[in-house]
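for the writeup, i need someone to sanity check this before i put it in the appendix. the sequnce is what the collaborator sent (i think, or maybe the updated version? ugh). structure was predicted straight from it, no edits. if anything looks off just tell me and ill rerun, i have time this weekend
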Amino acid sequence: MVAPLVPRRVVLGGAIAGAAALALSSCSSKPTPAPSTTSSTAAGMAAGFDELDAKIQAGMKFHGIPGVAVAVLAGGQEYVKGYGVTNVDHPLPVDGDTVFRIGSTTKTFTGTTLMRLVEQGKVDLDAPVRRYLPDFAVADVAASASVTVRQLLNHTSGWLGDDYQDFGRGDDAVARYAGSMTRLPQLTRPGTVFAYNNAGLVVAGRIIEVVAGSTYERAVQDLVLDPLELGHTRYFSDEIVGFNVAASHNVVEGKPLVDNAFWEFPRSCNPTGGLMSTVRDQLRYARFHLGDGNAPNGTPLLSRNGIIAMRSNPGPGGTLQVELSGMGVTWMLRPSAENVTVVQHGGTWQGQRSGFFMVPDRNFFMTVLTNSEGGAALLNELFAEDWSLRRFVELSNLPAVPQNLNAAELAPFEGRYVAQLISATGSLESSVIQLGAGNGQLIGSMSMGDTSSDPEADETSTQFGLAFYRPDYGLDLGPDGKPTGTRSNFVRGPDGTIAWFRNHGRLYQRQ
């Protein structure tokens, strides 16, 4: 889960993921072995883990990350390790059982819980949301009536998705959030365009509550966390007392500083990003999704078909850091140059960045949890830039060679693009991206402010750029003009002209 290109208080994003309509090989019923090369031998894997160690330690130093935990399943071997400290003020060593916030990887737990209810005959993924929530409504009457459960889970519901309102700590927090969504405008028709949508996952959480007859958190614990024996994966801070917890950190002038924002998370947003976990628990969760749907004690939780269904039948594709074929049931489905699908997610919370991906056809999994804003750069190096995939399973990203376009070729993409979000306090804020031609590429700036009382408010500005590598798709450039390892793309309207700029999965409307 990666946050959009906006200030830090915008907290929930899909940290690792991406569009291209390649065939999905993840639907095969059994993993196929990795190519027989030195990288898949025991010695090759040991060397790979050593290289991973070196890369993580170098990244921690360069990006200001006090603590990192990693878990890998590759070549039939498990690798779990912690690096650094939990807190620069009160340092304790990070290990495989250190608790971090996993942010939007939580969405896959929401999806897994819903899939259990589907297999119990209590939910139909293709039924309208109103079958379970009769009073559900957003601003658009037609979308309110027609949007389906599946469209919530594959991020094609089409309404404004970045709604971070806090409705308190009571058991009614999720219900109150869902009831407040009548103000959310419709951006695209349901089912037609991928746009990362936190609000849609809260609606899914509310469906879980109604169908299961309990709070969202209780249902996830009963249906997923407890059966999978994930004893260090919890939603509430009072449930991790006594655990080794990684504090959040900002990076100021290259040095990490403690940020107590770790503890501040709206319960109303729990279905979209509230879980805390460890790499050891995440490894056990990954083994479940790479397996036949059984709990560690052999109890069936999902059928093999249910596991495969979660990473199949993708909706429309796009970009979210990397290219996506689309999304299944909360899993991002990422194509590779070798036509083998990568199944992934990731998460962002203030001072906490995480990545999680699997390659079912290679029985491969990796997660990295960090306790610093600087973790985003390390995750780009390990995940978006495909270092880990190349090193451990010999897969690579779709090719992307930056092009230099002339002024006439860049002109259709120039202009002002705007996206909105709703803060925890309910205020409406806008992100504004201005794009212009420069040096064969697009050069841009993003500014953001509270627009509820002052439409021209501007609190911060970020410089960036875009280098096209194929029609409508580009490599993100940092302030230094160099690729950051992530990708964005433009979306055309029915008339063929540019209607949206998709950045970090969010749609910015051209004005």
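The two ends are 27 Å apart (CA to CA). The first strand starts at residue 67 and ends at 74.
thx in advance!!
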